[in-house]
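User: Thanks for the earlier help. One more: DUF655 domain-containing protein. Can you show the sequence and predicted structure together?

Assistant: Of course, both are below.
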Amino acid sequence: MKKKYQIIGLLVLMVCSIIYDFQKPEVQEKEVISLSYVILEGEFLTNGKYEFEGQKTIQDLIDEIGVSSKANLQSLNTDKIVEDESRIYLPPINDHAISLNHATKEELMTLQGIGEKTALKIMDYRSQQPFESIEDIMNVSGIGEKTYLRLRENLCL
């Protein structure tokens, strides 16, 4: 008799479990909006971390945020897509800025800390691919972040 009640109890438990499975409310997945961010420095009207949604070009950022009247827009490729978690520096206008894409070896050597070998490395780099931003100078062997930070106000594209 005891075994009979155990079997009936087990069957009732199975039926309840099946019924509960059919009645469970569906969980709706929330749409997750992923924000990208970029660090803005220099002559942007807003400096620091800037969060945005979707894909934007540097020109889109300039239109949304604005730049000061001293901004050297020739130092940026405004058609470039902004990469998430990147840093964009917009230098002030400098009449003596050296063009990374057009400067001669002698002009590059006028930059503090740039000798003949480094100037040739910069010219070799740009012959393979033009500089799209002044930050690309860090892709040249021998030029790191400290050198870039020292030179960036004197560079343009």
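User: Great, one quick takeaway?

Assistant: The longest helix spans residues 2-23.
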